[in-house]
TrEMBL record:
Residue intervals of the MOSC domain: 18-143
Coiled coil: none
The protein, known as: MOSC domain-containing protein
InterPro entries per the UniProt record, alphabetical: MoCF_Sase_C, MOSC_domain, Pyrv_Knase-like_insert_dom_sf
Length: 144
C-alpha cells in the first residue's frame, strides 16, 4: 500500500501543477479544478515520488507537481502496473490504469535542464470508476 504525497492542479495545460493539498476526484472528469480534466482515458495523472527522486539525484530542484502530475504517490512502482489495474484512492475513489507513460510532443523545461524527463516513461494515467475526496496522506492501494 502506498500513500498520496501531493494533490496537484493547474489552471492551464502546459504548465507545472501546484500542490493544493486536497481535491475532489470526479467520475467522467478527473481532478476538479484541473485544466487536464475531461471525459477521456487520461482523467488523472500519477507519478511516484521515487521517480521524482531520480531527477533530484541528477541535481534538479524539482518536486511534486513539477512534472504536471495530479497525484504524487509513494510506495508503489506505478509504471510497472499493467493496463486495467484498479487503484483504490483514499476512502472512496477507484481508478483504472489506462496508459503507462506518454509521448511528449514538445520538450519541457525539465527535459532541457536534465536531458531527460521521467513522466513520459514512469507516469501513469487512470480513468475514474468511482469518485470522492482525496488529500495528502490518504492511502493508495492496488486492488487488482
Amino acid at each position: 500500500m502506498g500513500k498520496i504525497i501531493a494533490v496537484c492542479t493547474s489552471e492551464r495545460k502546459g504548465m507545472r501543477k501546484k500542490n493544493v493539498g486536497e481535491g475532489v476526484l470526479k467520475v467522467n472528469f478527473g481532478l476538479e479544478g484541473d485544466a487536464h480534466g475531461g471525459d477521456w482515458h487520461r482523467m488523472v495523472s500519477l507519478l511516484a515520488m521515487e521517480s521524482i527522486k531520480t531527477m533530484q539525484d541528477k541535481g534538479l530542484k524539482v518536486g511534486p507537481g513539477d512534472f504536471a502530475e495530479n497525484l504524487t504517490t509513494e510506495g508503489i512502482e506505478l509504471f510497472t502496473l499493467p493496463i486495467g489495474t484498479k487503484l483504490k484512492i483514499g476512502a472512496t475513489s477507484l481508478g483504472e490504469v489506462t496508459q503507462i507513460g506518454k509521448e511528449c510532443h514538445t520538450k519541457c523545461a525539465i527535459f532541457y535542464q536534465a536531458g531527460d524527463c521521467v513522466m513520459p516513461k514512469e507516469g501513469i494515467f487512470i480513468r475514474l470508476l468511482e469518485g470522492g475526496a482525496v488529500r495528502v496522506g490518504d492511502s493508495i492501494e492496488v486492488i487488482s
